[in-house]
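Following up on my earlier thread - several people asked me to post the actual chain instead of describing it. Fair enough. Here it is, all 217 residues.
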Amino acid sequence: MRLEMPVSDIEALVARQLGTLFVFDPQHEGPLLKRAVAIALQRSECCFSETRVRSKYYVRDGEIYFNPFHSGQYAIFLYFLSNTIYREVSGSSTLSDRVYYLNKVLNGLDLFYEIEMPDAFFLDHPVGAVLGRAKYGEGFSFSQGCTVGNNKGIYPSIGRDVRMMSGSKIVGDCEIGDHVIIAANTYIKDANIPSCSIVFGSSPDLVIKQKSKSYFV
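Reply from S.P.:
Thanks for posting it. Predicted structure:
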């Protein structure tokens, strides 16, 4: 993956942002941040290379690249960074909290570090998106203003290659199949959606249109 700035500069950028907005102790937290940045970059490279949508957001001149000043790329990187720190310190770190909040402040994305996203997921403008503790399949993608949340403590289970268009919501006891497009502003609550379908409307009056698998490839 081609980096638009050296790894050391990426480390310094994150440290400066953390220190400006919150508190960052370079002496004690610097080594952990350095290790986590290296791992987060590897995870970002895997994500960008495997995502189904090979677009300008991840590929330039046929090569995968990373630019921390690209909001979408940086949002994914900061999620991987906060999640990596959480894993590195056996499930608890205030540094994870700060990186999570940094992502929220800079990119408008509410994606908690304890949530396990797939290795490859895609976003197209993260502003206003809130992703809860659902099960997410590989190739999941979302856009601005999307919500995944619980109803009475039950979260959705989302299959492979599910696309949430802007303003769409999945809430509660939902089983979303593979290769599903959830249309803009659609609201799914406590409902199951079959694989290879496009969904419109609001629960309980959803409109589901079945398509062949080739439609989604």
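The mean pLDDT is 94. That should answer part of your original question.
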